[in-house]
């Protein structure tokens, strides 16, 4: 039983393995192929087989530049990566990545652990990391919960926000991802990110979603309408027993309508109907106290997880933030406070 780095994986076999083992949406075949198309980079996999059957693997992407290689499992706005396994082959996989890092011109090699596995010890014990960066996600546990159970668990301010939107006769639809919807959703997203000083998704983001995922199965668009105008959107992905609250967007004029809260509540109810176990609100930065409080109002549970970073910090400091950002877009290298 050996671990090996491969490029040409059998995606049918890969998909069956991911679907039948505890994994995140980010490990799904569709998401890996989405990243491949969006980043224009071929994925790599560390795979372990026993009797011609996959028993463990870890996908990763490599970004190359004149400064060296940056490895992410996985890249793009905090996608979870790390190991998916059904037998204890984690040491084999991590030793293979350790060797790969040593044999190549690695500037940084990062594993983003899956928060829901809560198995940080395998990375602590077997991955040769320089340091780790702790993160926080917030999620809802939907297991064996009815719609009424969830509604009653919400903080009063959240229930008031949803009711306000309902009293304004705001309606929720699930549109197809048409060119018109893409333009409107993306323009709202751009405006919102600019107002917050955040980094926006690339322009081709929605088109690549359309090409790699199936709407109403892999994802859903929730749209709030007020006076026959679309005022806010929410993108939610589905994988196994997970729903991923992925990307909201709204017009600045609609903020006081609380339409985003109505969209979230609609997506939670939809998740319950689909027998989803976990509704993942995703990551929250330590300095995002207002966002943390907003998610906490939905009775969200906190989970800590880590970015495990093997890097040449001296070289990274010499290169500088601007050059790193230009050459390794959408890849995580190191916390900027370390530079």
Major beta-sheet overview: 13 strands, mixed
The overall strand count is: 13
> Given the C-alpha coordinates, what overall shape results?
globular
How many alpha or pi helices? Answer: 12
End-to-end gap = 40 Å
pLDDT < 50 stretches? none
* Secondary-structure class: alpha+beta
What is the CATH superfamily classification of the largest domain? Gcn5-related N-acetyltransferase (GNAT)
What is the CATH C level class of the largest domain, in words?
Alpha Beta
**Estimated share of beta-strand residues:** 25-35%
Q: What is the C-alpha radius of gyration, as a whole number of Å?
A: 21 Å
Arithmetic mean of pLDDT: 95
Q: Could you say how many structural domains there are in total?
A: 2
SSE sequence, one letter per element: EHHEEEEHEHEHHEHHEEEHEHEHH
Q: What is the third-level CATH name, the topology of the largest domain?
A: Aminopeptidase
Name the helicity range: 25-40%
**Which CATH architecture of the largest domain would you pick?**
3-Layer(aba) Sandwich
Describe the structure.
The protein is an alpha+beta fold. Helix 2 runs antiparallel to helix 8, helix 3 (90-103) crosses helix 4 (120-126) and helix 6 crosses helix 9 (259-273). It starts with a strand and ends in a 12-residue tail after the last helix. It is globular, with a radius of gyration of 21 Å. The chain folds into 2 domains: 3-135 and 306-338, Aminopeptidase (3-Layer(aba) Sandwich), CATH 3.40.630; 143-276, Gcn5-related N-acetyltransferase (GNAT) (Aminopeptidase), CATH 3.40.630.30. Strands 1, 2, 3, 4, 5, 6, 7, 8, 9, 10, 11, 12 and 13 form a 13-stranded mixed beta sheet that branches. It is 36% helix and 29% strand.
